[in-house]
Amino acid sequence: MTGIRVSRLALAIGLTASTTTTVMAAPQTFQTARSFAMGGTGVAVAHPATANIANPAMLADDHHDWADDFGLILPSVNARFADEEEVVDQIDDIQDTIDRLANSDTPVEAQENAGVLRRQLDELDRDTARVDVGAGLSLSIPLETLSVGVFTDGSLRVTTRGNVTDNDLEILREIEEDVIAASEVATGVRDVESELTSDGTVIAASTAEIGVSFARGFELANGHSLSLGLSPKYVQLRTFEYVQRVGDFDDDDFDSDENETDDSQFNVDLGAAYRFGEDGEWNAGLSVRNLLPMDLESTSGAELEIDPRITAGIAHNGEYHVTTAELDLTEQKGFGFSDDTQWLAVGAEFDALRYAQLRVGLRHNLASNDDHRGVEEETQFTAGIGLSPFGARLDIGGLISDSEVGAAIELGAAF
């Protein structure tokens, strides 16, 4: 086959992305580039523009005087990719081998191709690749009486996996070892491609949201301050599931409408922030995302569950630094080939004369995944930089772990 041909699974990933472009969404919580670079933190350190997404109460919290009047994100984009086993490349190679097997001229050639295909399928079994993409926009206007903001964000998770059956391995082993079976293939009497039952699966889940945020700050008698916020929003869920037998990867019967499900409803995020310390240098934050549970079944009956996500954080703010730690108090269920997640994260930001920021972070998944279902999500290391000359902002972040790499970029303004 020529290099122009694209594997059906790779094509399905592209079609999944295109069919969800209008919602730009996923069950994984969207992160701004600053949060991305600081280990996914933000509940106790979010700036006004990022507060819409991380913790609406931070809209009304005390910030640096150079960043507490207006905040804009236009836009923020991030992506992560995990494919240690090079699943898509494996599938392309398998397609080539199937073609060579079907077009074998001699029994010996059929035996050789059957052996190659058997080993390729054996290596592909349960190998998984995953892509995460997120995007968001945000506008915030902190005011003394009532801080307000508007936002839209979402992310998309697409996972592909090879599922190989023992039946296929036995068929190929028979051809590899039996000259008569190999002769039937070489003479065209036997169509091996139609006998193969192994398949490739693409499964994706997405959420998209658009909403408004409101927050109010209160001065307490002890000299500390308390901020409360809420974000009513409209949320859309979508799932996509595509299964194709290994022998049919080149068929042109793909119909995205038959593989999608979707649902939507109104929901709300809540947040609180408590600033304390002699100079107000400490801040504790609490956020509840998606207060109202949501669920949606895929075409095969797999259930996507969006449960309330409760996260607590604490931060120390200095003149030129911020350090923070936060913990998910609830576990989020994985969908399809994804692991459950419950993150413990730490992050830090070091400021250079208000014009540049250096950020680092780490987060670790505390959820129990003894029955591992796909690409592992355990410990992730992050870093990034921010440039903010004259109120304009450019934020860049990176992520690396044992299984994946990622990057984020964001344009915005704050003053």
Q: Characteristics of this structure?
A:
16 strands; 8 helices; alpha+beta; Porin; 415 residues; elongated; disordered N terminus; single chain
Can you walk me through this structure?
The chain is an alpha+beta fold and 415 residues long. It has a single domain, classed as Porin (Beta Barrel), CATH 2.40.160. Helix content is 20%, strand content 44%. It has helices spanning 8-19, 33-37, 48-54, 87-102, 107-124, 166-177, 179-186, 192-195; strands at residues 71-82, 128-141, 147-163, 199-219, 225-245, 260-276, 282-289, 294-297, 303-306, 309-317, 321-328, 343-352, 356-365, 379-387, 392-401, 405-414.
Task: Please outline what is shown here.
The protein is α+β, with helices and mostly antiparallel strands and 415 residues long. Helices cover 20% and strands 44% of the residues.
